[in-house]
Design brief:
The structure holds 2 protein chains of 2 kinds.
Chain A lengths: L1 H16 L21 H15 L5 H5 L4 H13 L2
Helix pairs in contact in A: 1-2, 1-4
Chain B lengths: L5 H16 L2 H17 L3 H22 L7 H34 L18 H16 L9 H9 L1 H4 L10 H4 L8 H34 L6 H33 L16 H5 L4 H18 L5 H19 L3 H19 L1 H10 L2 H24 L3 H12 L15 H22 L11 H17 L13
The chains are: A mainly alpha, B mainly alpha.
Chain lengths: 82, 477
């Protein structure tokens, strides 16, 4: 239940950062699949995720993310272990 | 051995005959032998250096893959310290030493470290060092498994088409392909040959011929009027593009003949609407490397700084990008100029989006391309100049606004005919790349148009080429 909740909250974060309510994000997607997902929006995305979920994500953790699914897994690990 | 030499054509022809005659299992040994032979012709000892870097990065990746993420750091620190140490020693030691000595002498202090005479920069070291680093970091960040076969890994680092001046290949691209069997495919080989021909055209007809006009101007700017120096600066933008993208065309073409796809490095750079976009179209493999392994880690290390993290990361990235090209203050200035403008672009992104809605689109686009191109031409003065004094001389001549001297009288030995040839050749090159893409993918291998293109370009190459092989500019980096 909480995992599904995290996923929908993450999708809202994407809509907010990319300023697009109709943005369709799939878990296998990477920065190459989304228009406007550049370094600046990637930074905004991670900072907004940290605020939204009340977690801290280190630089090394960001560098190990391969796709949206990895980001969701990281959020789940950090929020569900608390 | 230069790409633009008959020795290379002979060497590559022999490699191709053997490559397609032997089973897949032995091909990597052939290519590895050929690559080291090709490299060691420059200086035999270079072979030991690249072999050392290869083994070190291979062992580091193999060891860290067995460790937990938390225990990996010390191994990559040692690996990078040695690999970057070698790069620093060969490329930057004298530069930093001279500058430290100047500071000590300014304060009238004794400086004990002498300059090491005759440190010869091993050609290609900046390119293959970046490849070894990207491979180790990819394993470190769990983006890929370590390569088990040292021979295949060594071939990925030393693969001769891209060894001397890139493109900088990611381990997730070429390394994977080198394990796969390639076949003799006539259409693919014809495509590869056409790409090689196009590279020769850009290098021999345009870049090498332009060097005859531009080199004397940079050597003695005072001998030329401001208008002529300005013309040379514009033409240098096309010389450097044709020199470097010509090299890349030959690298991509020869790889394609053998059945391997290496990354594109250029995508109409002078059509960029801002400087950030320019770096997404110019020397893409370096830009992507810097973004993935330097810029991104820095912004996430400093993410609490907000937008200033971007500015900080931009400056560090572009100063290092400048210095990557060579140990000279002109390259530092080149990097700082890029850093200033890209920081401005990042911080004003939203405001500029609003402007784009207000101002008529065609005018906005034209103005953006115009400004970006002129900024690039200006920055290339520092890129090309021998030193800061030389760059100031060039800018000084241009700003004199000398309208009295007739430009046409200053072509000297180059002549109006030479100028006509380069203008025609540049126009032909721009037309072809606009219509069929820089990769020429728009030309169908079997079409009549393709035969016409090959015949026409070959004829132009023979008639208009300047056949006195010149070093590729990027070999100096």
């Amino acid at each position: 239940m909480e995992k599904a909740d995290n996923q929908s909250r993450l999708m809202k974060v994407f809509s907010k950062v990319f300023d697009n309510d109709s943005l369709q994000i799939e878990l296998h997607m990477t920065a190459n699949d989304v228009d406007g997902w550049d370094s600046m929006s990637h930074l905004q995305l991670i900072v907004t995720v940290e605020k939204e979920f009340g977690i801290k994500i280190s630089g090394a953790e960001v560098m190990r993310l391969k796709n949206v699914g990895d980001l969701l897994d990281l959020i789940n690990t950090k929020t569900l272990s608390n | 051995m230069l790409f633009n030499s008959f020795a290379f054509l002979l060497f590559f022809s022999i490699i191709c005959i053997f490559f397609f005659s032997i089973p897949h299992t032995y091909r990597k040994f052939l290519l590895l032998f050929a690559s080291y032979f090709f490299y060691m012709l420059w200086e035999p000892v270079y072979g030991l250096l690249i072999a050392f870097s290869t083994v070190l990065s291979y062992l580091t990746a193999t060891i860290i893959a067995k460790k937990t993420f938390e225990n990996r750091k010390k191994y990559i620190v040692i690996c990078f310290f040695i690999n970057l140490g070698l790069l620093f020693f060969f490329k930057y030691f004298n530069f930093f030493n001279e500058n430290f000595r100047s500071v000590f002498e300014y304060f009238q202090l004794n400086y004990p470290i002498p300059d090491l005479l005759k440190i010869i920069l091993p050609v290609g070291i900046s390119f293959y060092t970046f490849e070894t680093i990207s491979y180790v970091l990819d394993v470190y960040y769990d983006r890929r498994e370590p390569e088990r076969d040292l021979g295949t890994y060594a071939l990925y680092i030393s693969f001769f088409p891209k060894l001397l001046a890139g493109p900088i290949e990611k381990s997730t691209g070429l390394l994977v392909q080198l394990r796969q069997e390639t076949t003799f495919d006539y259409d693919r080989i014809v495509d590869g040959l056409r790409r090689v021909l196009w590279g020769f055209f850009k290098k021999i007809v345009i870049a090498d011929r332009l060097s005859l006009l531009i080199d004397p101007v940079y050597a003695h700017p005072a001998n030329y009027s401001g208008g002529f120096v300005l013309l040379s600066c514009y033409l240098f933008a096309f010389q450097i593009y044709c020199d470097f993208s010509g090299y890349t065309d030959i690298a991509i073409g020869t790889s394609k003949i053998l059945g391997y796809t290496i990354v594109e490095n250029f995508d109409h750079p002078y059509k960029s609407k801002n400087v950030g976009e320019f770096w997404r179209r110019w020397h893409l493999s370096l830009s992507n490397w810097l973004r993935d392994y330097l810029f991104t880690p820095i912004i996430f290390k400093r993410k609490n700084w907000g937008d200033w993290a971007l500015v900080y990361a931009t400056f560090i990235t572009f100063i290092l990008c400048g210095l990557w090209h060579g140990a000279k203050w002109t390259f530092v200035i080149f990097g700082v100029l890029q850093g200033i403008v890209i920081s401005y672009e990042l911080l004003t992104k939203k405001m500029r989006k609003k402007w784009a809605f207000i101002v008529p689109e065609r005018f906005y686009n034209f103005l953006s391309i115009f400004l970006t191109f002129h900024f690039t031409v200006f920055c290339f003065i520092f890129f090309r100049a021998d030193n800061v004094h030389n760059a100031r001389e060039i800018i000084g001549q241009i700003t004199q606004l000398d309208l009295q001297t007739n430009i046409l009288s200053q072509f000297g030995k180059f002549g109006m005919l030479g100028f006509g040839i380069v203008i025609f050749s540049i126009s032909f090159m721009l037309y072809i790349e606009r219509r069929y893409q820089p990769s020429l993918e728009g030309l169908n291998s079997n079409s009549r148009l393709n035969y016409l293109f090959n015949g026409f370009t070959f004829t132009l190459l023979i008639i208009l080429g300047y056949f006195h092989p010149q070093l590729f500019i990027y070999f100096n980096f």
